[in-house]
Design brief:
alpha+beta, Ribosomal Protein L22, Chain A, 6 helices, three-stranded antiparallel β-sheet, 4-PPantetheinyl_Trfase_dom_sf, transferase
């Protein structure tokens, strides 16, 4: 096993960043500003500007570069990257934002976050999208654990397809994750046709950025340690 390296994680409730809206808007590229402006409501426009502004601010801190001057590149399926900077990934759920920043550019990682809630349609969604072993594990659980189990599975699967850069072009039933509450997060199986290596090539981590949230981090390789940094540290001198 190689030397342990950290994945830096930052969680934010966007309500707490509202006072930085204009400063963050000033960091956006013309394309980003136009994208934010296309949302139908002011609430959605504000969320978009705050998310992207926070990402630029954090990457500027990590690289020592002007956050407004950062130029992103995009993979074939739209995954953003920062040439010459660290790998990163962003997940959001309404006003909740989670950003992961790796120590260097070549790291393959993905994050996802969801609000823990009642999900009346969980069984139907699992039947449609989950792998057979995931469906079996889900069906064997008591009702009291099924919402958490479903969100465990969903966030881990979303984080994985974000880490590979293939996004929703990846059939979700072609790989399986552990979803049973209380068991360690891990990749159980991976179809070789996905060309993403083997299940053993990936590290999965449970994330609990705030009460009532379920999250996951997926990173290729081993020796990783996720570390949450207080949001206020990002704005200290």
């Amino acid at each position: 096993m190689r030397k342990t390296e950290e994945i830096q994680l930052c969680y934010a409730d966007l309500h707490g960043l509202a006072h930085r809206l204009e400063a963050f808007r000033a960091l956006l590229s013309p394309d980003e500003a136009a994208r934010a402006a296309r949302f139908a409501t002011e609430e959605l426009r504000t969320r978009c500007a705050l998310r992207r502004g926070l990402l630029r601010h954090l990457l500027g801190r990590a690289t020592g570069r002007d956050p407004a001057a950062l130029a992103f590149a995009y993979g074939p399926m739209g995954k953003p990257s920062l040439p010459g900077g660290p790998a990163f990934n962003l997940a959001d759920c309404k006003d909740h934002v989670l950003i992961a920043i790796a120590p260097h550019e070549t790291v393959e990682l993905g994050v996802d976050v969801e609000r823990l809630r009642r999900l009346p349609d969980a069984a139907g969604i699992a039947e449609r999208f989950f792998a057979p072993e995931e469906r079996d594990a889900f069906a064997a659980l008591p009702d009291a654990l099924r919402d958490e189990a479903f969100l465990n599975g969903w966030t881990r699967k979303e984080a994985f397809i974000k880490a590979t850069g293939q996004g929703l072009s990846t059939p979700l039933d072609r790989f399986a994750v552990e979803l049973t509450p209380g068991r360690p997060a891990r990749l159980l199986s991976l179809d070789g046709a996905l060309e993403a290596g083997t299940a053993a090539d990936w590290s999965l981590f449970d994330l609990h950025p705030a009460p009532g949230l379920v999250g996951a981090l997926v990173v290729r390789g081993d020796g990783w340690r996720p570390v949450f940094r207080p949001l206020e540290d990002a704005f200290s001198a």
